Every structure is written in C-alpha cells, then in structure tokens.
Amino acid sequence: EWLMPPSIFNVFQTRLLDNEQGAQLEPDFRPALLVVDMQEDFCPPNGTLAVTGGRSITPLINTLLSSPLFVLRVATKDWHPPNHISFASNHNHTSSSSPCCPEFAGEAIPFLSTTTVHNPHNPSESYTTRLWPAHCIAGTPGACLIPELDVSKIDKILEKGTNPLVEMYSAFYDPLKNPRVSDSGLAQMLREARVTHVYVVGLAADYCVWSTAMDAHNEGFETVVVEEATKPVDEEGWRRCKEALVAEGKGVKVVRWE
Ligand code: VGL
Ligand code: ZN
C-alpha cells in the first residue's frame, strides 16, 4: 500500500513504517532537503548580519538531515566577493567624486538604503534591492557553515551570490531573466535526481528561504517550508511573506514541525 505525501508528519510516519516494516515509498514521492545559508555571519553572537535565534534551529535541521527519506540533501552558502553590490559599504562615495551612486550623498545605510541592480547584459532590465552590512565574504570565517550543522549528511554544497553585480537570495538563480545572469544549477541537479518535493529550511526566512521556496515552486516542485527550522531577519516581514504565499495561491506550504 502506497503512503501519501507530503506533510512533514507523513514524512516521519513513513520513515517509521519504512524502518520497521520495510514498506516501500511511493514512487512519486522523492523529496530533497535544501539547507539555506547556515553560516556564521547569519548567526549570533558574531555574525555581521546575525538573525535572532539563527543558531537555535540547527538541532531540528540535523534531525531532518538524518532522515533517510530525502533522496538529496543540498546546502547553500551565501558567498560574496568583497565588492558585492548588496554591501552598503560599497556604495559610500561622495556623489561629486563618484558617478557610481548619485542616490547616496556620501552614506548608504545597511538595512535601510536600497540600490538598483541592472542586468549587465540588458540595462533596461532592473530591480531595486536592499543593502546589507558586509557579510559572507568568500573564504572568510563569517562565510563558514556553522560547526553545529551535520555536514557529513550533506550531498552537495552550492555557493551563491558570487557575481558582484547582482543580488541572489534564491538557491536557484538571481532575479534577472532577460537573459539570466547567474544559475547555480540546482534545478537541473534536482531534476537529474528525479526529485518531486522540496523541503526548505535555514536562514533567513524572509529572504533566501522565501526566495528559494518561490523558485522551487515555480520550477514545478511541491514545496514545503518547515517553520521551526527557519528564522527571519524581520518577524513582520516574514508574516507578510507567508500571507503573500497564501493570498497569491502560490502553493508553497509552510508547515510546523510540531
Ligand atoms: C540573505 C540577506 C543578504 C539570506 C543573504 O541568506 O537570507 N539575506 N544575503
Ligand atoms: Zn548576501
């Protein structure tokens, strides 16, 4: 008898049955786990962009990682060059001395200021994005996965945000489409593994987790975010993200582990 996807409850009920009775999994249920940006710079006490409670979700993520159900476990690392466009410090020029940022009269403020990102191949395509403190600079201690995370269970680690010219919250690609600027290859990797369902956890709920979940859904995967296995930069922003998912009928499920 086939077991039904895709609630997290069923996942673990299935695991128990699988272990105890050698039951077969439904062939149309091939879930992957995406662990987003569990890095020092997103965690207290020393992260430059620390998310409140960021470290506290690790035990649950490790529990999920140890489930034998997932056919693929992928972690991402935000991995920026020092001159990345999302760092407020890279926009601090006096407007008279630099043509770069006339919108900032000398100072861009992390969390508050925004900038416009243009498609390097098509200047007419652009979007506005938020500026941050410098974080996750490739190869620095702040960019390391936190040591509590059980990396031995992870099949593949993807680096994202490596192009200095664009913001890339999603584990899949950056927001520019005409043409695409960065693609991590994740969609192809999931398809090659014949993944049907994508479970998204990690940091931060209202940015990279949300963006990854939206793209997973748009790529045709049944998509689930585990509420207790993520934490937002801004609680109010995360509430709005969740409302938008429901209101727009996006079909991404936000489930509680509890
Ligand atoms: C993230 C802000 C900037 C994230 C990454 O991982 O959610 N947020 N870069
Ligand atoms: Zn970043």
UniProtKB/TrEMBL annotation:
InterPro entries named in the record: Isochorismatase-like_dom, Isochorismatase-like_sf, Isochorismatase_Nicotinamidase
Listed EC numbers: 3.5.1.19
Enzyme class: hydrolase
Keywords: Hydrolase, Metal-binding, Pyridine nucleotide biosynthesis
Protein name: nicotinamidase
Keyword rRNA-binding in record: no
CDD domains, per the entry: nicotinamidase
BP GO annotations: pyridine nucleotide biosynthetic process
A GO term for molecular function: metal ion binding
Positions of the Isochorismatase-like domain: 32-246
Pathway: Cofactor biosynthesis; nicotinate biosynthesis; nicotinate from nicotinamide: step 1/1
Gene3D superfamilies: Isochorismatase-like (3.40.50.850)
Organism: Neurospora tetraspora
